[in-house]
Amino acid sequence: MKIPKPTVKRLAIYYRCLERLVDKGIDNISSRQLAEMLHIKDTQVRKDLSYFGNFGRRGFGYKTRVLLDEIRKILGIHKRWNVIIVGAGNIGKAIARFKQIEKHNFKITGIFDVDRKKIGKRINSDLIVMSVDEMENFIEKTGSELAVIATPAEAAQLIADRLKNSGIKGIICFAPVTLNTDIPVEYVDITIFFKTLVHSVISLSHNI
Amino acid sequence: MKIPKPTVKRLAIYYRCLERLVDKGIDNISSRQLAEMLHIKDTQVRKDLSYFGNFGRRGFGYKTRVLLDEIRKILGIHKRWNVIIVGAGNIGKAIARFKQIEKHNFKITGIFDVDRKKIGKRINSDLIVMSVDEMENFIEKTGSELAVIATPAEAAQLIADRLKNSGIKGIICFAPVTLNTDIPVEYVDITIFFKTLVHSVISLSHNI
């Protein structure tokens, strides 16, 4: 079943919210409550969730724990994913040290760079920067399936090609480029978020 | 004029591509070429750009430099924006040190934290971590209009309220929460990108 990407993103947001509710010991939630917390329409919540079967009971809402487990399976985060990072600059290091990722079942197995000054540097208790020359062997040895590209724009395409050829199945791309590849890519160009924000700010001030 | 957010995001991506073309000395580009580089449909490119008037000439394409200037104005990045960062953890520091942002006319003016161990630490040649107690005064003094929230989830809403009350007009939120505020927010929850990616990878493997 092909689920549209906006729906997938909302599922991940419902998931985040449900985790917090379960932590707080809240067992039940209605689509209206969920919608209010996330500032979306409750018809949208119901539509998104009904996609996958009937999780809720009319008038009784959803069982938070059941819904959490279901979304976990739908998203594919019920299993652990091994992730490598290419590029040990500011962004690559921040991702390597970002504890939230591990909490969500993603394990950063290795970090690579071309810069001799960075290779051998310790990032945290588990990770030392390796040379990109070792990347292909490492991917095979560790069975890493996902990769983060945090290289400069110019290097990203070549790295993406090498990653795909080594068996990587999906890429998170922080480099400001559009990659030419047939494996799934999620783009996180931070400057695009800034530009989109500025446009919203300006449009709003024009309307006043 | 209210432009849909997906269009705004694509404009920012056209902009990124046009910058590279101008750097390479390429003066003209057709919508088809632009579409091919970005793996989208050329009808989409033409539709997006025709939104703002007639930049191209049928059969002659777009003048890269003219289009770049126009998109810059539409997005609102022809002026400089002062930005503060709240939270000097891994993500906050990475954003503070991320040179791409400055290159795009966003100036990081200050970075704040509540942690006494972090306050006073140097982030780069321009920035030293300040106490959040100084945040409101600093925003006023520097005329900062945008803010990055890179705090833990629990702190984000209170910070967002304080930012709005101090005159901040837009927020980039890295904290994994949905904020309750009426100023524009762009959300960058890195774990959501990982989850969305995993879903694409899994769907693809099911289809094979």
Automatic annotation (TrEMBL), chains A, B:
User: Mind telling me which GO cellular component terms the entry cites?
Assistant: cytoplasm
GO BP annotations of the record are: negative regulation of DNA-templated transcription; response to redox state
Binding positions for NAD(+) per the UniProt entry? 87-92
| Transmembrane parts of this sequence | none
Main location (coarse class): cytoplasm
List, in alphabetical order, the Gene Ontology terms for molecular function in this entry.
DNA binding; DNA-binding transcription factor activity
Cell membrane found in the keyword field: no
The Swiss-Prot or TrEMBL record marks DNA binding at 13-52
Q: Which Pfam families match?
A: CoA_binding, Put_DNA-bind_N
Tell where it localizes: Cytoplasm
InterPro entries linked: CoA-bd, NAD(P)-bd_dom_sf, Rex_actinobacterial-type, Rex_DNA-bd_C_dom, Tscrpt_rep_Rex, WH-like_DNA-bd_sf, WH_DNA-bd_sf
Q: Does the keyword Transcription regulation apply?
A: yes
Keywords on this record?
Answer: Cytoplasm, DNA-binding, NAD, Repressor, Transcription, Transcription regulation
Annotated CoA-binding domain ranges read 76-178
Relate the protein's function as given in its record: Modulates transcription in response to changes in cellular NADH/NAD(+) redox state.
- Subunit details for this protein? Homodimer.
Q: Which family does it belong to?
A: Belongs to the transcriptional regulatory Rex family.
NCBIfam families the record matches = PRK05472.1-3, PRK05472.2-2, PRK05472.2-3, PRK05472.2-4, PRK05472.2-5
Q: Which HAMAP family does the entry mention?
A: Rex (MF_01131)
Name recorded for this polypeptide: Redox-sensing transcriptional repressor Rex
Q: Which organism is it from?
A: Pseudothermotoga lettingae (strain ATCC BAA-301 / DSM 14385 / NBRC 107922 / TMO)
